[in-house]
Amino acid sequence: MMNRYLERIKEDIRTVFSKDPAARSYLEVICCYPGLHAIWLYRLAHKLWMRKLVFPARFISHLGRLFTGIEIHPGAAIGRRFFIDHGAGVVIGETAEIGDDVLIYQGVVLGGVSLVKGKRHPTIGSNVLIGAGTIILGPIQIGDGVRIGAASLVLCDVPANAVAVGVPARIGVGYTARDIAELAHHKLPDPIAEAFKFLGKKIDNLEERLKEMEQSQGIRVELDRYLEEKKKEIMSIFNGQEEFHKGMGI
Questions:
Q1: Which of 175, 90, 161, 83 is nearest to 125 (CA)?
Q2: pLDDT by residue (tens digit) across 5-58?
Q3: pTM of this structure
Q4: Known catalytic residues?
């Protein structure tokens, strides 16, 4: 039993080194990473919670919040190799479920929207990245391999290997697991901007077809120069990004 606990502690430390390039030594990681301390305290509190020792579990959880700035309810279910980078202001609710290999940043909230007892908090799949300041509310499902951009508000299910960005979060799909793995944290695609780019191309195609029809029928129409310049100005924001779908969105 003790060997298993020691192995989990070693795994937690290795996870920090694998997910934070700023980690330099074992001593630094063990002493100076509140996200790591919060996970260790959560595990102790969760053991007590599962044994119906509610008050001791909540008290340890409260101490964890006091010393780390991270609030993890002891009733939450968290998988292996979970890492909270920086950690300040993170809140994980009672019925939240988190898979393996999940990375979250400061200010993330996995919150509930109902006052009724039962499943009230999100279920997060494995290999998920949640950017700083993101709020995920309700008993929704976040699939495996998802990337959620910083400061997003997620209110609906997100399928596996998708990107969610914005307030409320818009979902971009059609990515492979390899595409998702290669996305930089600060350059997630923006589904709204992609939609603008698509619509801009569609408008150009329709205008070209209309122009051909007018010319064939001898119809002359004066272009509104202001509207044309305004359209060029707006679409120039998006049209210069040929690799937009690979992370040029935001």
A1: 161
A2: 888 899 999 999 999 999 999 999 999 999 999 999 999 999 999 999 999 999
A3: 0.76
A4: 121
